[in-house]
Design the sequence.
């Protein structure tokens, strides 16, 4: 009993912080989502709207488009980062010239704030100033204008995100690979297994917990991306890179539509939880069946 | 007796003179060590306040100034959040002319007229509301006896800039004459604007220069493009106030507005048509990038905010076209100039802003002193040079300003003489809300996803829906 009380007392500061910074804001947003509330309306007071904000979402073409773009973006960046990150981590398990230099340079983007990453890429891609449009035009005759061509803009934010976050995936997987017991791998080699078979049947299953964690983190990050995309494209051209985070920001701040923006935020949170849960279920299903 | 009176007067004068000369330190004495915080957009006029005027004020008063200059959207975001939450982070905020109506509707700001009347000890004896240009009228509340809620700190017009070195080159003139059959000169019609744009784009290609026909502020994901169209281009075609009918709060022609009127469609078609003659960065350009493009010598003409006109014309460290900048009024459709002269219309945007004190400020008195300090006539000339802005009538007469005026092809004279032809944004408390639902249609038109007619039809419908949401029209 006494040790239980002491435990709760020790946990109390953390719980208090979590309640203040997590639970209460969540409840506040939840409450607002049931109101119509715009500071600059004729009536600036919150007005009860029941579930109207959530009903609006289902018919809101801009919102649905931003959800679709966000999912597409997430799929591209997470898949690319995991594949690239795994490959680079495997590479770094080996010795090669200038390995330490490569590892340091490769990790650099991770240390840069997203807003600075966006600014850097913007400087590199602005026509008339940036080297990327200049050389693409000069060498390949490609008219590269993010602000004009939606496909280029989308591809550019995907590449930027891959550039920024692949090192994180690499380092996480590298840590996992470094801690793998070598005995099963060596045993498999003695038994005449090919490298591909070792990777598929030993390394990959053993890495599943690390991969799962990494993928979850990256999915959650990708679903809420805002700052670097804002700096690079501002959601444009048109609304072609207006991912859900940016869309919510525009609804809540410049447009001051707090009720509707809150409903969007909640739906996005729900979507994130569902996606992660589905992924978790899919990745652990085979193990459950096997056991 | 006379000698005694004289002696008394001299003594009184001796006592009074230092007090007058040292008004700032005396008035600020109770606020020594106080720090006032402000927020504004990072623009040439605001940066001058941060770098030059704020340190001078601190030296004169002992009041510290922390002045944050940030991006345009962050500036709004921070100021509105602070004032709405009443957190008191900022003691003065930048109020863009188009935002004052929203702020007044929410009662965010201190009534400065009243505050000065209530605190005579804080009023600089030399401060004179009457010396402000008519731009101050935008910051008066007609519902409160025209009391002032912001001290103007910048005001400028969006003018038509052109490259004099190109326009006055005899070979170019002859070539233009031969191709179009009339003399090369600053455009007075839209056809001329387009011809000039086409000519110089071709000229740039022929001579291997990075030169294009015109600037276009057509950022395809930023409200700057919305502003250029509705505040600078549509008025040239006689479509004012974003095409919204202020009696019925409607936008579509069918409901009494002009947002999708034939004139608006013609204006949008013309403006989008200029993109083919604009530098490739045009679709990524806000007001800042337009100024940079012109300063880099990449455009032969274009609409440029006046806050940038002076540095483009005079600052050789930042501009490659110093000495070659011409200034003129933009072209107008038939009848628009007459409408502007009679006060029934306008030909472009009179931009600017003021500093106001939020109710939530804990240092209102110190902030009031700061605003009066930076409004002193003797500080205005340097500020005008740095930021192309004038808010006091007396500034026009300042020899230094007249000197700059000569270097900028009489930009200040144009502003003084023709400023009345320009107008600020319409008095909409829902400014940001309608802009946010309307601007995406401009973006879609820029990238070719919508025709001008489709964009304006959909914009008008979205605007009316938003006005209904906000309670301006019945559900």
Sequence:
């Amino acid at each position: 009993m006494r040790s239980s009380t002491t435990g709760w007392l020790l946990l109390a500061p953390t719980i208090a912080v979590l309640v203040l910074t997590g639970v209460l804001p969540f409840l506040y947003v939840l409450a607002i989502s049931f109101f119509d509330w715009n500071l600059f309306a004729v009536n600036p007071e919150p007005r009860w709207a029941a579930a109207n904000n959530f009903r609006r979402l289902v018919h809101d073409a801009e919102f649905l488009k931003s959800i679709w773009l966000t999912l597409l973006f997430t799929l591209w960046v997470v898949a690319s980062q995991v594949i690239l990150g795994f490959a680079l981590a495997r590479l770094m398990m080996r010795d090669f010239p200038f390995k330490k230099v490569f590892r340091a340079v490769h990790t650099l983007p991770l240390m840069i704030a997203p807003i600075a990453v966006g600014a850097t890429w913007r400087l590199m891609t602005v026509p008339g100033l940036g080297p990327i449009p200049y050389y693409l035009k000069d060498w390949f005759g490609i008219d590269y204008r993010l602000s004009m061509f939606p496909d280029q803009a989308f591809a550019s934010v995907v590449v930027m995100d891959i550039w920024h976050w692949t090192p994180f995936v690499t380092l996480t997987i590298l840590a996992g690979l470094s801690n793998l017991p070598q005995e099963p791998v060596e045993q498999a080699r003695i038994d005449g297994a090919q490298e591909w078979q070792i990777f598929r049947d030993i390394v990959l299953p053993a890495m599943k917990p690390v991969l799962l964690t990494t993928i979850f983190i990256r999915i959650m990050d990708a679903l809420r991306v805002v700052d670097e995309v804002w700096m690079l494209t501002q959601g444009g051209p048109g609304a072609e890179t207006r991912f859900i985070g940016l869309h919510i920001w525009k609804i809540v701040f410049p447009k001051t539509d707090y009720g509707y923006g809150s409903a969007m935020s909640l739906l996005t949170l729900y979507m994130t939880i569902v996606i992660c849960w589905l992924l978790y279920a899919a990745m652990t299903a085979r193990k459950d069946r096997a056991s | 007796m006379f000698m005694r009176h004289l002696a008394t007067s001299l003594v009184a004068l001796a006592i009074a003179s230092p007090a007058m000369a040292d008004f700032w330190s005396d008035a600020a004495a109770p606020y020594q060590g106080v720090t006032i915080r402000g927020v504004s957009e990072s623009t040439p006029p605001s940066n001058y306040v941060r770098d030059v005027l704020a340190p001078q004020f601190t030296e004169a008063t002992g009041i510290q100034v922390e002045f944050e200059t940030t991006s345009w959207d962050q500036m709004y975001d921070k100021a509105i959040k602070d004032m709405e939450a009443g957190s008191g982070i900022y003691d003065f905020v930048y109020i863009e002319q188009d935002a004052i109506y929203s702020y007044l509707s929410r009662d965010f700001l201190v009534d400065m007229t009243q505050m000065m009347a209530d605190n005579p000890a804080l009023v600089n004896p030399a401060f004179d509301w009457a010396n402000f240009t008519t731009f101050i009228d935008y910051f008066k509340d007609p519902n409160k006896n025209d009391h002032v809620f912001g001290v103007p700190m910048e005001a400028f017009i969006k003018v038509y800039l052109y490259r004099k070195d190109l326009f006055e080159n005899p070979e170019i003139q002859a070539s233009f004459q031969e191709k179009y059959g009339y003399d090369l000169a600053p455009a007075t019609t839209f056809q001329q604007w387009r011809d000039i744009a086409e000519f110089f784009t071709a000229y740039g290609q022929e001579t291997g220069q990075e030169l294009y026909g015109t600037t276009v502020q057509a950022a395809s994901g930023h409200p700057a493009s919305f502003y250029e169209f509705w505040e600078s281009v549509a008025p040239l075609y006689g479509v004012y106030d974003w095409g919204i009918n202020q009696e019925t709060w409607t936008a579509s022609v069918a409901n009494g507005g002009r947002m999708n009127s034939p004139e608006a469609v013609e204006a949008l078609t013309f403006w989008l048509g200029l993109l083919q003659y604009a530098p490739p960065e045009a679709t990524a350009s806000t007001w800042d990038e337009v100024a940079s493009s012109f300063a880099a010598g990449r455009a032969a003409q274009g609409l440029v905010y006046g806050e940038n006109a002076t540095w483009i014309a005079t600052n050789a460290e930042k501009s490659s076209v110093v000495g070659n900048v011409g200034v003129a009024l933009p072209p107008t459709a038939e009848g628009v100039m007459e409408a502007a002269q009679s006060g029934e219309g306008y030909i472009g945007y009179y931009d600017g802003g003021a500093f106001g004190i939020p109710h939530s400020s804990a240092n209102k008195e110190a902030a009031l002193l700061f605003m009066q300090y930076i409004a002193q006539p003797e500080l205005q000339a340097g500020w005008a040079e740095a930021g192309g802005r004038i808010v006091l009538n007396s500034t026009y007469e300042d020899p230094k300003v007249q000197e700059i005026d000569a270097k900028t092809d009489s930009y200040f004279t144009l502003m003084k003489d023709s400023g009345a032809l320009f107008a600020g944004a319409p008095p909409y408390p829902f400014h940001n809300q309608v802009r946010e639902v309307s601007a995406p249609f401009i973006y879609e038109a820029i990238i070719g996803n919508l025709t001008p007619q489709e964009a304006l039809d959909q914009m008008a419908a979205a605007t009316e829906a938003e006005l209904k949401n906000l309670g301006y029209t019945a559900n």
Remarks:
- The two ends of chain B are 82 Å apart (CA to CA).
- Residues 2-21 of chain B form the longest helix (20 residues).
- DSSP finds 20 helices and nine strands in chain B.
- Chain B has two domains: 15-156+352-413, 157-341.
